[in-house]
Amino acid sequence: MKYCVNWFQLLRVRQWVKNIFVLLPLFFSGKIMEIGNPQVFLLAIYGFGSFCCWSSVVYILNDWTDCQRDREHPRKKNRPLASGTISPVQAFAAAIFLFLLPLGIAVGWLVGLNDENFSRSLGYFLACGLGYLANNLLYCFLLRFHVLLDVFSIAMGFVLRVLAGCLILGVEPSQWILVCTFTLALFLGFGKRRQELALCDGKDLYRSTLNHYSIEFLNFLMSISAAICLMAYMLYTIAPGTIAQHNSDDLIYTTPFVFYGIFRYMLFALRNRADGPDEVLFRDIPFLVNGILWLGVVLWLI
After folding, report:
1. 113 compared with 288, residue with greater pLDDT
2. Count of CB atoms within 10 A of residue 171's CB?
3. Is 287 helix (H, G, I), strand (E, B) or coil?
4. Which of 72, 166, 236, 269 could disulfide-link 171, Cβ–Cβ 3.0 to 4.6 Å?
């Protein structure tokens, strides 16, 4: 049982919730209403599963590069690679398997199906997935050591998730949704940096970039990101393309849930009570209920 827990920690299974962004186009395109078309849901599940695999590859790589420093960290020293409960050879074997698994499934589909449009969509999706991995490699070896660029790289990872979800479903991505995703990810990223800075209390900084941040500066960046995110979401709900796609202008009524979710997370971040959005999602019942209500209202309106 302990061995399974170690693998769950290494693969960061709890972090897979971030890959829900791959599924957002399924909802906002209205394709989720195509109950009689199982291929849509199969492709959405494949897209989500692929990014779960690839994100775990990134986490394994991060843990491997940070292994020595993690051993000196009071909490991260218990990570499987740092503690030695999983060997680097086992971790690399798992990373290679998880990297190749989505590619193998894609090759099987391309061989078995003779559909030019599907092949094109799948090819674009895989290219987006490789872009996601390349972005994370840059982050791992370069960008995480540069102030602001570290959070920008993380935010681009979320944008690529949404783009990949659009590509696998053959959906035209909304520019407002992409802006909303990018600024939301910036907001969450700066909130996480604020938490890290507050906990380290200016001593023995684990991240070198934290030397260039301050609580006041991060509060300012969070406020700007949150404001632009909320504005972009509201503009998306009333955009002519959105109204034409759903034959309704009622999505504007989902904005209170988005406002509440962002303000709720900001409350936790300013009180230093969460290490990231996943902790708020899993531990805070009002935040979770708000997300479920938002999703329910979106489905009802479209």
Report:
1. 288
2. 17
3. helix
4. 166
> Which of 167, 172, 161 lies closest to 133 in space, CA to CA?
161
How far is 79 from 85, CA to CA, in rounded Å?
8
14-39 residue pLDDT tens: 889 899 999 999 888 878 777 667 88
Q: Are 286 and 264 in contact (CB under 8 A)?
A: yes
Locate 132 and state its tokens: 């996601």
Cα–Cα distance between 42 and 35 in angstroms, integer? 12
Confidence of residue 151 (pLDDT cuts 50, 70, 90): very high
Round to whole Å and give the CA distance between 197 and 260. Answer: 25
Per-residue tokens: 6:
């170690």
Q: For 164-221, what is each residue's pLDDT tens digit?
A: 999 999 888 889 999 999 999 999 999 989 888 887 765 545 677 888 899 999 999 9
Residue type, 290: N
Q: How many CB atoms are located within 10 Å of the residue 257 CB?
A: 18
The Cα 16–Cα 49 span in angstroms is: 9
**Residue 10: both structure tokens together:** 């290494």
